[in-house]
């Protein structure tokens, strides 16, 4: 099992590389090499797998970011859609557990490892809608294309492009957005609540809570094997990530003997529960406090880096190479905490 | 000669595993005769002697504040599988296949916080990486002669010692359950690439108690301290005022209290004597 965390970190790095391929030079073709030590029953990088989480909720792994799948007679709801290049495999994996039409794709945030499959997958689905408006298109009350839902900021970022990235194709845009603190959905006899986490991993993060199943999709607000990627150009902030983690802890309730209970599907990595989020929140709060203390002492960024405020957590969460290094994480936190 | 042949023939017809299986069924009393201070009131902050911890684990432990245990989400956490044997009494029972009577699993129940474990004996594989981790992990067992050897993976991040010395969720644990009459010795070996430079080995003894009864241990978290949301009690590096308490209390050099693999071995006593003769006033 020693390769467990390595696999997750590599998968995350590869997913991030897909967002900014020019920055890393890492391509999808290298995924097989990254995971060649994997056990047979474990996901192999480049391969997409579906694992049951609870009831009619599943996690789809290996397509970039984790995808949450909820299915029932009302159709399929996906939280995130993975990388564009993985869409065929994602759909094939989905079909191993459900033949229902894909109705909704909820995006937790804008990054391409979570939204890249929007267009490819949405066009295979359909939406129940007003009879009068569309009855001549696909049937009495069904129109082609699954509905894509996200916070308004996701749409803004997708349409604007920026940060060296082109705008996303219009077929990938969330046509249904929200600007409030939360948005309620109801599908497959279950309330599905979207909570906006302002200025966190990005400025458009959503926590998705499956209330009946007692499962939370956190997106990249929680990545149990890496320091959080704070996307400064897209409005990311450590304080927002901590607020979001505190919110997830508030929502989650452990089962007897503090095992299980509410399951949390992170943006990347294994399925977790409240205690895992508490462990992550503890780590991140301590590092935030340490850097805040160094900032208060008037230290420069270089002095803060030299003080190694993450030293005791680096073996688990850190990286000295790749897209998101420990130094970049420290710098992002420093920038957040010194911003006037 | 006939008798020897008969024994050999009978033995040849019985699976070797049947000779090896030992019964652990029953209630086992923990006499707590070893490592008393750690197992009773608890270790002092900064007491790392005998632990092969690395520098990053030492910093984590130095930052640890006992008030962390007052955070509601942490109040009812049981000791993880690798630390549970240090405390409380133990109940063990087995699950058998009704048809074959083969042992499918052994179960353990520790009284404090009532954690229960399942040790699968049916040869099943450990779960994939994406499976959740738990406080008790996922355990499989096999017989090595008359010793039950258990391998545990999928543990949540826990602790090597309950004064903040961390044990990561990447750790694996090997255990040996050894019964000698009415005495059970439970050996725990923790392999943690993140926090330890060598495996951490502990053994705990239990005595069979035919009159023992396991009590319930419900837990409900409460607000013990009013705090703002998200506050995590901890010490900033260099500010923990309690790190020298242990060495001071026992008249040890602070260097010894800081632990490390060297402090595990008998040879360290020579160095310790030299340190004490040079640092402790006569």
Keywords:
heterodimer, A: 340 residues, alpha/beta, Metallo-beta-lactamase, Chain A, 7-stranded mixed β-sheet, 6-stranded mixed β-sheet, 13 helices, 15 strands, 34% helix, globular, disordered N terminus, B: 282 residues, alpha+beta, Lipocalin, 9-stranded mixed barrel, two-stranded antiparallel ribbon, 7 helices
Question: Can you describe what's shown?
Answer:
The complex is a heterodimer of chains A (340) and B (282). By secondary structure, chain A is α/β, with parallel strands linked by helices. Chain A has a single domain, classed as Ribonuclease Z/Hydroxyacylglutathione hydrolase-like (Metallo-beta-lactamase, Chain A). Helices cover 34% and strands 21% of the residues of chain A. Chain A is built from 13 helices and 15 strands. In chain A, the strands form 3 sheets. Chain A has a 7-stranded mixed sheet with strand order 1-2-3-4-5-8-9. The longest helix of chain A has 23 residues, at 274-296. With 282 residues, chain B is an alpha+beta fold. Chain B has a domain at 26-47 and 61-208: Lipocalin (Beta Barrel). In chain B, the strands form 2 sheets. A 9-stranded mixed barrel of chain B has the order 1-2-3-4-5-6-9-10-11. Chain B is globular, with a radius of gyration of 22 Å. Chain B starts with a helix and ends with a helix. The model of chain B is unreliable at 4-14 (pLDDT under 50). At the A-B interface, α1, α9, β15, α10 and α12 of A face α4 of B.
Cα-based radius of gyration of chain A, to the nearest Å:
20 Å
Beta strands of chain B, count:
11
Q: Largest sheet of chain B, order of strands side by side?
A: 1-2-3-4-5-6-9-10-11
Largest interface: A-B, 49 and 47 residues
Query: Ranges of chain B with pLDDT <50 over ≥5 residues?
Result: 4-14
Measured distance between first and last alpha carbons of chain B: 72 Å
Which shape of chain A, going by the Cα principal axes? globular
